[in-house]
Amino acid sequence: MKITMVVYSHYSRDARVRRYAEALAEKNIIVDILCLKENYHPKESNIKLFYYPLPRRRYGKMWNIFEYIIFLIYSTLFLSLIYFFKRYKVIHVHNMPEFLVFSGVLPKIFGAKIILDMHDPMPELYMSKYHTPENSLMVKWLKWLEGLSLKFADHILTANEEFKKIFLSRHKIEADKISVILNCPDPKIFNPPASPAGRQPTTHNPQQFTLLYMGTVEKRFGLDVAVEAMPDLIKKIPHIRFIIIPKLENEGEYFKNLKIKIQSAPPAGGWRTKLKNYIQFLSPLPLEKIADQLRKTDVGIVLAQNGVFTESIFPVKLLEFIQMKIPVIASKTKSLVKYFDSSSIYYLKNNTSEDFTKAVIDLWKSVRLRKKLTINSLKYFNLHNWKVERRKYYNILKI
User: Fold this and answer.
1) How many CA atoms lie within 13 A of 336 on its CB side?
2) What is the pLDDT of residue 290?
3) What pLDDT, on the 0 to 100 scale, is given for residue 311?
4) What is the CATH number of domain 201-383?
5) Which residues does UniProt call coiled coil (predicted)?
6) Arch. (CATH architecture) of 2-184+385-397
């Protein structure tokens, strides 16, 4: 059996895509993946990466649309040519954007089955990112395009029940056409410390207390709250460090402005002079190196501004923190509270820098609190884990 995937991201950093591909490789299935170019080679001999030659950049709305269209053209030509040599049984396409599903039109005509994996709902993301009302022409067009894409696919996967409800509420699709496969970390990569009681966060380096944010660096993910809290935190926890690992090397204007804010000191000095010594930006990392960084982390940060998109997301990074027995400070969203109460995650009450400061200090002072959050949050994996989710994927593919 041969399967191909199409994804507009870097394979080494895309946890959802890698879990699927490596699960298929375990079944001795040949997996070819068209993805963004990077210096990475899978260790599995039956996974082969085909690189799209152009880099991805965040230059704004029109640039994003242009990038998506060019990748759609490239992926359509790629699949149309390679299909006749490989004869894939399944074409597994990942959004964003969902209209990449049409790159599989020729293989579909010749009998290949098309799976569309909806990592995120694009209209909600667009509204959140560009502060656009739901009744705008662009959002209506995105919903229409989403509907066409969902109908074209033979089967649809998505990352949580909230997303499934969104898709069913606005499109005439049978509920059993959409399967939820949760973003559970692969324990082969994210293998936690052995301690059953939860790690004692400062044992790796008693001279440092490390906060970690990883993922997309955009305003909607509320990093300003954490950065603004740092001056007060530095005074109270002199050995604190805040590590930020972006998803892309070129994250866009917000990312650039945030770095300038941190790195540039005002003429008269002040706290910003020292701030750059306490906040470190790393380059984007493959999952293996992310796991290494997590082993040196004391508290995970998962923030979000209130919005139509952020209310429904269930970040994979949150689960990676929990899998590695790291207590989490998070903004309270509808999706998170469905699975985790305040005994499992330290929720911010008002999403302010004062709230964030209090949360960090509370966790820094109390090993007992850190252990309690860790132990309680780990209960999630009793019901939801990659072994269970992987079986769902196998069943859909009938393997």
Assistant:
1) 27
2) 97
3) 81
4) 3.40.50.2000
5) none
6) 3-Layer(aba) Sandwich (3.40)
